[in-house]
Design goal:
The chain has 244 residues and is mainly alpha-helical. The protein has 2 domains: 5-21 and 179-239, no CATH class; 31-176, Helix Hairpins (Orthogonal Bundle). Helices cover 77% and strands 5% of the residues. It has helices spanning 5-29, 32-88, 94-176, 180-193, 214-222; strands at 197-201, 204-205, 229-230, 237-239. A hairpin with a 6-residue loop joins strand 3 and strand 4. Helix 1 runs antiparallel to helix 3. Bound molecules: zinc ion. Zinc ion binds at residues 198, 205, 207-208, 210, 231, 233-234, 236.
């Protein structure tokens, strides 16, 4: 392939631009701000999950409280009725009276055991209430951290994106002036090894950093200026730029 020397030389600038563009892409993909955002996001989701588990446990405990309270009420009503019966003096049969007393004794024990359970469940509810308040405070704090982290990430990304857009515009301008077969060769080579072209620096290829042998160097030296030379090691377009 043939290409005027200035065309070949401009590939060096293109290589530099592409290096900068891939550094920007690498920075965007490995942003510490993104990492921070991901960490806070994970912590926030974990706290929100814990909070919703506590809410479910609280609903469950509320149901237990209501159930125990209505049982306590039912037993109390039964006791009141039995006591009323006993105090009314309407029962004179001693067997019936002793049955009533026995039932009252049973009801009192039942009442006491239900009240113990109710107390336990209410203590548990109190604990869960305080857990919920603590977890809610954690979620609120993490929500705010997340908003801060998101903003920091967006600012960093916007900064990178601005640099990328500027370099991409310069690149488009530059490639518009390149002959299409030379550009296509550069792009193919860049896609295959990551570097499309390299300057010949002494005996070394600027793309793969390998020193070329004497025979190869003699062949390159003998080639006309507009001949497009490829590195025999990495296949990159070798740029002969005076002053190298
Ligand atoms: Zn090379």
């Amino acid at each position: 392939m043939k290409a005027e020397a200035w065309q070949q030389h401009s590939l060096l600038k293109l290589t530099e631009l592409d290096t900068e563009l891939s550094q920007l892409a690498h920075r965007a993909a490995h942003l510490p701000e993104q990492q921070r955002y991901d960490e806070v996001h994970a912590a926030q989701r974990a706290a929100a999950d814990r909070l919703s588990a506590i809410r479910i446990a609280l609903e469950d405990i509320e149901a237990q409280v209501s159930k125990l309270e209505s049982e306590v009420n039912a037993v109390r009503q039964r006791e009141d009725r039995d006591r009323g019966l006993m105090n009314s003096g309407s029962i004179s049969d001693s067997k019936q009276l002793s049955e009533l007393q026995h039932e009252l004794g049973t009801l009192e024990r039942r009442q006491s055991s239900l009240e113990d359970s109710l107390l336990e469940v209410m203590e548990r509810r109190e604990q869960l209430d305080s857990d919920r308040a603590a977890e809610q405070a954690a979620v609120d704090g993490l929500d705010s951290d997340l908003a801060t982290a998101q903003q920091a990430r967006d600012v960093a990304l916007a900064d990178i994106e601005q640099g990328r857009a500027e370099q991409a515009a310069r690149r488009a301008e530059m490639t518009a002036n390149l002959q299409s077969d030379l550009l296509a060769l550069y792009e193919r080579q860049r896609a295959s090894t990551g570097v499309g072209a390299g300057r010949l620096q002494g005996r070394r290829c600027g793309a793969c950093r390998i020193e070329l042998d004497r025979g190869e160097l003699a062949r390159i030296a003998a080639a006309p200026e507009d001949e497009v030379i490829r590195c025999s090691e990495c296949q990159a377009i070798l740029l002969r730029i005076p002053g190298a």
